[in-house]
Design goal:
The chain has about 90 residues and is mainly α. The protein contains four helices and no strands.
Length: about 90
């Protein structure tokens, strides 16, 4: 929330104590849809330019081993698409 960052920068001595509403010094995640807002905040001096920390986001689908053994189609995201698989998932994980 860029307003929270702005509130922290505008707070006395950059201290969020006593600030009403959101107040933050760190925004740990920036998603691709926020690139322009990020650039604008940099130009405003609201945030400092940062480099890559070496991490990239990954998403994983965890299922119990016995489920994978019973139905290997659930071990890949392709096996999760479509109406038939949606019903299968609903039945398995109800």
């Amino acid at each position: 929330d860029y307003d929270a960052l702005r509130a922290a920068n505008e707070a006395p001595q950059n201290n969020c104590d006593g600030v009403e509403g959101p107040c933050a010094h760190v925004m740990s995640e920036i998603w691709p849809g926020q690139r322009q807002v990020w650039k604008d905040a940099e130009q405003e001096g609201l945030i400092e330019p940062v480099g890559n920390n070496g991490r990239t986001a990954s998403y994983y689908w965890y299922i119990p081993k016995f489920v994978a053994q019973e139905d290997p189609s659930l071990t890949v995201s392709y096996g999760l698409g479509g109406e038939q698989n949606r019903r299968k998932l609903a039945q398995r994980f109800k």
